[in-house]
Amino acid sequence: MMASLSTPPATAGVSPSPRPSLLAYKKAAGLTPSPWCGWRRAAVATAATSSNRTAAPAETIVTGNDVPLLSFAEVAERLDEFHASGTRNQNYMAMYSSIFGGITTNPSAMVIPIDDHMVHRGHGVFDTAAIMNGHLYELEQHLDRFLKSASMAKITLPFDRSTIRSILIQTVSASKCTQGSLRYWLSVGPGDFQLSSAGCANSALYAIVIESPSLPVPAGCKVITSSIPIKSQQFAVMKSVNYLPNALTKVEGEENGGFTGIWLDDEGFVAEGSNMNVGFVTQSKELLMPRFDKILSGCTAKRVLTLAKQLVADGRLSGISSRNVSVQEGKAADEMMLIGSGILVKPVVQWDDQIIGSGKEGPIAQMLFNLILEDMRSGPPSVRIPVSY
């Protein structure tokens, strides 16, 4: 069914040429555009006209003439139009899919099958790695967690670890992106719309490179205690695509004038943010983080703990600890921060109605931000893999 999955990845260093849009190709070739080229404008005009009509009875049947039957070429053309419309607000530079067994640099072609069980059942896992100055940051560490999550989710690998690693690096190479992020997914694959994955012939690997020319800024933020139930331990420690609780926690934080929400565990101790870890600097200048036994083991947070040893050595911190943290202790801390690959280190200046410390960005959070950023730019080979463009 999916012979392309067994196709070995492209030779290292060989990058596919960007495919011109189908719309541009047709125009260059002097071909007549599809009668549906103006589908967006037609849809808007139809909606405007329909709004002036009397509402149709609920039992009205929509005829086949109301929705066009499109050829593959017309679908591709409309995908080109969708991308050109500016609806997307990120730059997608390259995508790998084991479904078509290669890399594309055309954002219109960056799609996955609707019957992939990752889409309709959430049976998939994912991870990420930052791209900084043409290097992949902590790819090995994220890849280890990625494969552990896949095992927990009972997803059979389509390739071995070294092949997956090679595919990810080649995708970044093809993208020509030197600063941004690499995101990748493993799914039980497409096949049907059943609950069981028994009908999925092969698992699937997807990866995408997103350009992010600007760096995060360590500006202070507000957080709230989330009312959304935290995921159970079995699922909290696995980085699966089931992020609805995470998304709702983030939305709830934003709706209450904050950056995100903070989860508490089943015993009422501080757990984590919507997609980042939480850290504190106590009044005794100890860097404190909740234990990772009930939450996702953050690669960036663990690296911060390692880099923070420099601040202990020079006396800026009295020590580093990972243990249960009560809400009372957290709100009484000198500093509070969120830690994750997308934000690095972000100071928290208010939690619910409680001002944290002085109410301004703390010095330790700023130092840790600088340390992790410098590590991304010039850290050791154990955390930085060069990409050959």
In short:
The protein contains twelve helices and 16 strands. With 389 residues, the protein is an alpha+beta fold.
Key attributes of the depicted protein:
389 residues, alpha+beta, D-amino Acid Aminotransferase, Chain A, domain 1, D-amino Acid Aminotransferase, Chain A, domain 2, 2 domains, nine-stranded mixed β-sheet, seven-stranded antiparallel β-sheet, disordered N terminus, Os02g0273100 protein, BCAT-like_C, catalytic activity, pyridoxal phosphate, BCAT-like_N
Describe what you observe in this structure.
- The protein is an alpha+beta fold and 389 residues long.
- The chain has two domains: 86-211, Aminotransferase class 4, branched-chain amino acid transferase, N-terminal domain (D-amino Acid Aminotransferase, Chain A, domain 1, 2-Layer Sandwich); 221-378, D-amino Acid Aminotransferase, subunit A, domain 2 (D-amino Acid Aminotransferase, Chain A, domain 2, Alpha-Beta Barrel), CATH 3.20.10.10.
- Helices cover 30% and strands 22% of the residues.
- Strands 7, 8, 9, 10, 11, 12, 13, 14 and 15 form a nine-stranded mixed sheet that branches.
- Strand 1 and strand 2 form a beta hairpin.
